[in-house]
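For reference, the entry.
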Amino acid sequence: MSTPVSDAGPAGRAPASAPVIAFFDVDNTLLRGASVYYLGRTAWKRGHLGWRDLTRFAWQQARFTSVGENHQHQLAVRDRALELIAGHSVAELDEIAEETYDSSLVGLLHEQVVARAHDHIAQGHEVWVITATPHACARVIAERLGLTGAMGTHIESVDGVFTGALVGSVMHGPHKAEAAARLAAEKGAELADCWAYSDSRNDIPLLELVGHQQVVNPDAALARYAQARGWPVMRDRPRSSRRRRRDGESTPPQA
């Protein structure tokens, strides 16, 4: 198992009598890049998107990977994704999410971060994926990795068909922290005992909510914020397909 860069992690901590929850962001935390782009690419392969849509998603992916997310980027992706999904069925999105994980996301996982999630599971903690990506994708990631559950952005559907409207808010920024606080309250977990993992300055409300912060591949603003507060930082990158083949693996290890 990989050793984290600057923090001993949860290993060796006895689980408290109350539940302990570890919250993991997805994009640039559990995996490299923006998961919604890969959903879009799968949708294009299935004929649901045109070249113009795919090009736009590709540009947003490149920008996100190089400079990190920002509020304007997040709103643009949200609005375009909602526009494109309107009229499609819930079953279609579920199929796209599963295909996207198997064809793309599994190869982008940050192995050290996934290992950390499994450390939490081994310690008896609950591990929840919490992300702005559609809930269908968040659910598949959690299931494939053997985690406790997922919280993602919910999109309204009527009779199994998406309307293009949101249910509540995008799981982002302060809304993510609010959702985490609600889950902890429902579970009877003490926030001081809980953990949060993220790469983004937008998740500072989530990181400050819990007693144990873990910054992962941070954007510049979060790196400065973490340094000022002495929060531990992990830096991890997914292995290339060439390296996986060299090591005799078809995909990164999964639970």
Q: What stands out?
A: The first strand starts at residue 21 and ends at 24.
